[in-house]
Amino acid sequence: MARNTALPLAFFCLSITSVWGQPKHDYNWIMGYDYSQLPDQIICMNFNFCPVFISHINTVSEFWMEGSNTSMSDREGNLLFYTNGCYIVNKKGEIMENGDSINPGLIHRYWCPSGGCPLPQAVTAIPAPGSDSLYYVFNLDLGMPFFMTQYFGVAPEHLYYHVVDMSANDGLGKVIAKNRVAVKDTFSRGNVKAVRHANGVDWWVITPKCHTNCYFLTLVTAEGVQPPLVRCVGKVWSDLDGGAQVVFTPDAKKYIRVNGENGLNIFDFNNATGELSNPVVIYFPNDTFSHAGASVSANSRFLYISARKKLYQFDLQAADIAASKTLIGEWDGFSNPYPTIFFYSALAPDNKIYISGKNSHRYLHVIHEPDKPGLACRLEQRGVLLPSYNYATIPNFPHYRMSNEECDWTSNTIETALSGRALALYPNPTPGELWVNFPDMGERGAELLLFDALGRLVYRQWMAEPLSRIDLSALRAGTYVYVVRQSDGVTSGRIAKVE
């Protein structure tokens, strides 16, 4: 059962109307964990707002985003569902109909009763080609194919897929196909990744095979999930394949896989045929301890590698990629309560790269301008303070857009709608005097609420007139989320207070 949370905004992930034509399927990042000693701690990073709005949301009790983690929003950026590789949870924080038990075997038996799938990047979701309401969820299980052999005993044996129909249950969704086998073999411990096909409609889902240099490529079309292709190229990975991260460049021309034991592996990728070619392998002596992270700038040029206490940039357009290695940051020694070293990372819709830590703490590191070379990329350690603890997690998304959008605060007016009625707040940013113009408010009036970056209510006022003057002079300079609420609905957005 979902539970109420103490934060006033946590009854939903706030979203606003799409202003760009590009899909916003990755606009809600769900992270953190919920358990009996620390309930109601799941975090939502909502990129519909500029800057990103971070809050708690309701969720299933004992729900962890520990290793496997993805979510799905509609084209306008409204949260639809999310999963930790154990359950598919709808936007109300309840297990979706038929969304339980999506990972039969060891993970269901030992991790899912209170937690989540521990394998990194072992779950991802994509829109179904040719449909406005269907979505695929892919995930790896965990079996014991190597028990009593020279290898570590457990490894995934199935790549499952499930089909979600969001037209069911009044938009809360239903899993209409579950635990279908896309591929049966032995796989590396994690690292399922999806990328758009060259036709702009279909999808590839790539999964590394265990102890080899082979990769399964599963094509998803309007006709469904196709039999996999197998591509074998590059370095043969050892049994120590855990703690890795994989990523495609946003232009889908390169596939990258990295961990501390097997190094940085870069391939050219043909998203029309699924071919992997021209492998490059780069090692990191003494920089990593089995785990590493990878992400790529929106312009597809600069690769960022997390190596525990160090963060590197590579130029993927350089004639010698290895020689382009540039140290852009070293861990500053901060712990809260555990060391905030560099781990998994991801390019966000705001064109920034966010980096998680290997341990539980309340921070994400931020690369503010990853399209720029060297130190100009502007790494900020602990650039985001989270409202609760996150353990290592960063969401696993494909890249959806031709280009990412950067935040723009040049507009001085916010215009939006509540139940179809015009609403405007100005000026924005404001030095203190804010006007709320709600000409169709009617006799019922409306309530204005302001929340700070941690979701705390800092201002509240009832408005009885269509044009209301609001005095915000007592508030500190910063960015706030506003909510205008009536009995038949709410609308929300961002407002900035300046000195």
List the helices and strands and how they pair.
Blueprint: E1 28-31, E2 43-46, E3 53-56, E4 70-73, E5 79-83, E6 88-90, H1 106-110, E7 123-127, E8 134-140, E9 158-165, E10 174-184, E11 193-196, E12 203-208, E13 214-221, E14 224-225, E15 229-232, E16 245-248, E17 254-259, E18 263-270, E19 275-282, E20 293-296, E21 302-307, E22 310-315, E23 326-330, E24 345-347, E25 353-355, E26 360-367, E27 379-391, E28 414-418, E29 421-426, E30 433-437, E31 446-451, E32 457-463, E33 467-471, E34 478-486, E35 489-497
Antiparallel strand pairs: 1-2, 2-3, 4-5, 5-6, 7-8, 8-9, 9-10, 11-12, 12-13, 13-14, 13-15, 16-17, 17-18, 18-19, 20-21, 21-22, 22-23, 24-25, 25-26, 26-27, 28-29, 29-30, 30-33, 31-32, 31-34, 34-35
* Radius of gyration from CA coordinates: 23 Å
Whole-Å distance between the termini?
Answer: 45 Å
Give the CATH architecture of the largest domain.
7 Propeller
Which secondary-structure class do the elements indicate?
Answer: mainly beta
Residue share in β-strands? 35-45%
Summed up, the helix count is: 1
Principal-axis shape equals: globular
- Indicate the mean pLDDT: 87
Give me the CATH superfamily of the largest domain: YVTN repeat-like/Quinoprotein amine dehydrogenase
What is the highest CATH level, the class of the largest domain?
Mainly Beta
**Helix amount, in percent?**
under 10%
Biggest sheet details: 5 strands, antiparallel
Q: Can you tell me the number of structural domains? A: 2
Which fold name fills CATH's third level, the topology of the largest domain?
Answer: Methylamine Dehydrogenase, Chain H
Low-confidence stretches: 1-20, 408-415
**DSSP, total strands:** 35
